[in-house]
Amino acid sequence: MIKPRYEGYCDSEPTKLVREKFGNTNVYGQIAKSLLTKATGFIAAYDFTLNPYRGCQYGCSYCYAAAFSPNNKMRQDWGNWVIFKENSEEILAKELHKWYKHNPQIPPRIYMSSVTDPYQPFESKYQLTRRLLEVMLDVRNDGHPTPTLVIQTRSPIITRDIDYLQRFQRLRINMSIPTGSESVRKDFEPRSPSIKARLNAIYIIKKSIDSTKGFVPRISITITPLLPTFINDEADFIDRLVIADRVVIQDFHPSHSSSLIASTRQEVITIKQKYAWWYDSEKSSYIKFKEKLISRLPHVDIKEGKDGFGYD
Ligand code: SF4
To answer: How far apart are the C-alpha atoms of 119 and 228, rounded to whole Å?
Structure first.
């Protein structure tokens, strides 16, 4: 047994290392009191956020969620630890039961996830997100509509759950693809899946869902934050986005000195310097890219920031 790196990071909650390592990741289990959290900020249109995990193995350089790490050491080591709630299914079932008791025919609007990727690599083994989808689908057995669900991910692992996804009456999948250039992706988010793998995952989902047998999900590509795309890749990338019914663009979250506010990580500032051709005139780069999206994708809804994150 490898000595847990963050042992005792949070004395008030029972926490233990449940795996020595998953790849390079320290994995912890925790007993939760709640799972659904009231949605605020850019996703205030939802009733709840649902984060199956805390921490994220993708460890993107710009990730604002690192600000919500349990302590400074874990904030600095963002990407190398994951906490999951061992009693998640039981808690979610209780919380949904409580919702439907007061709103039997009104589905809760749930955004999964705001501070983690529900399909990060650990999910392939642990299958927590899959089990939570099952809990959400179970409500139909009691005559309730399934939750309105938005899944935010950058992972092709989502295709594993197509059998469940097609049973949601109102589902939107937000596939995050912040750049059309692989070399840019490798600089800003080196551990994440390739652009090709993400687009292919959406293609597989669209091809696999039979509208006569299930519900067809809505698809967004979220270019958030909008990262540079080299001119040679631009037209091809944009043309491939026609697979979505919506494309969302957004700037970086602002950086804050306070560790408790959602904030773009400092790590990204160094990487941005490599892309001076884009960031020296960031506003104009953003506007030009947006104009190209509008002109090349006339049948796709192009949205910006908060407006793009709703279900409808
Ligand atoms: S995948 Fe999302 S939650 Fe995970 S590190 Fe990247 S931006 Fe953060």
So the answer is: 25
